[in-house]
Amino acid sequence: MKSANLIWALVAGMVFGFGLSLSAMTHPEVVLSFLQFNDFGLLLVLGGAVAVTTLFYQVAPRLLAKPLFSPVWGKQPSEMSRRTIGGAAIFGIGWGISGVCPGPAIAGLGSGNWPLLASVAAIFAGAWVQGRFFGR
Amino acid sequence: METYFPNGLGHYLAGGLIIGAAVGLLFITTGLVGGMSTVFSSTWSFVSKQAFFQQKRFTDSRAWRLAYAAGLILGGLIWLIWSGAGAWQTGVSWGQLALGGFLVGFGARMSNGCTSGHGICGLAFLQLPSLLAVLTFLATSIVTAQLIAWTGGSL
């Protein structure tokens, strides 16, 4: 059911992009203003998103044998390792410099925040350098 | 409250709930876990012959991840039309956007997750490594942003 994956990814992406735009996460200034303790709105965004997602992730596999249009439930493969934590530390430095992370960088392009193209290009570059020279 | 939320609470909370509904919708329909950073690696698999980028986890997921990213752009456009706010561009310098973006791309690939992958999906799966990743990137981002603010506000 590959086509179902594509269609639902597109639909879910649209909802995601709308939410990121509504909550102003596509404005790097708003993210930086949280990191500088001037506006704690980002915590409401993250908290709200985690609460709803937790409900789906924890309840859906108990109620349904499989997803509606696919054979298996996926998992988040996060591992306890130096790479997970070290990578997060580097990620955070970049986030603190720019106020930009992957989702908002992409969604912001849709609402005309075109300077974020610089970030999108740089995220592609950073992912390539990591994978090419340090990946495994 | 105004001290902590000078721009109000409603749009933040509503946006967060909608984001959660989006990630939940993707999961209940397809079983897929919707972090956003991997699209920046899986898309390289279309053009790079490097063994790293040709891993199954990237080649198997690259199509839906691109569709997900395309949806994100469309969602931003729909919000723009719906809100009537008019297009807005960030005043953060190109240098900061690019340097920060590079470290974000590098770090998210190394950590195998970002603000959505660890911050939303990992936490919702009650994964301890993701919780530690979130606390780590919150700590380093806060220190970085505060240091920049103290030294004049921009790079």
Please specify the SSE layout and strand pairing:
The complex is a heterodimer of chains A (136) and B (155).
Chain A: H1 2-22, H2 28-35, H3 41-63, H4 82-98, H5 102-110, H6 116-134
Chain B: H1 10-30, H2 39-42, H3 56-59, H4 62-83, H5 94-111, H6 117-124, H7 128-150
Report on the architecture of this protein.
The complex is a heterodimer of chains A (136) and B (155). With 136 residues, chain A is mainly alpha-helical. Chain A has one domain. Chain A is 71% helix and 0% strand. Chain A has six helices and no strands. In chain A, helix 1 packs across helix 5 and helix 5 packs antiparallel against helix 6. The radius of gyration of chain A is 17 Å and the shape is globular. The mean pLDDT of chain A is 96. Chain B is mostly helical. Chain B has seven helices and no strands. In chain B, helix 6 packs antiparallel against helix 7. The mean pLDDT of chain B is 96. Classes of the chains: A mainly alpha (136), B mainly alpha (155). The interface between A and B is large, with 122 and 121 residues.
Provide the descriptors you would attach to this structure in a database record.
heterodimer, A: mainly alpha, 6 helices, B: 155 residues, mainly alpha, 0% strand
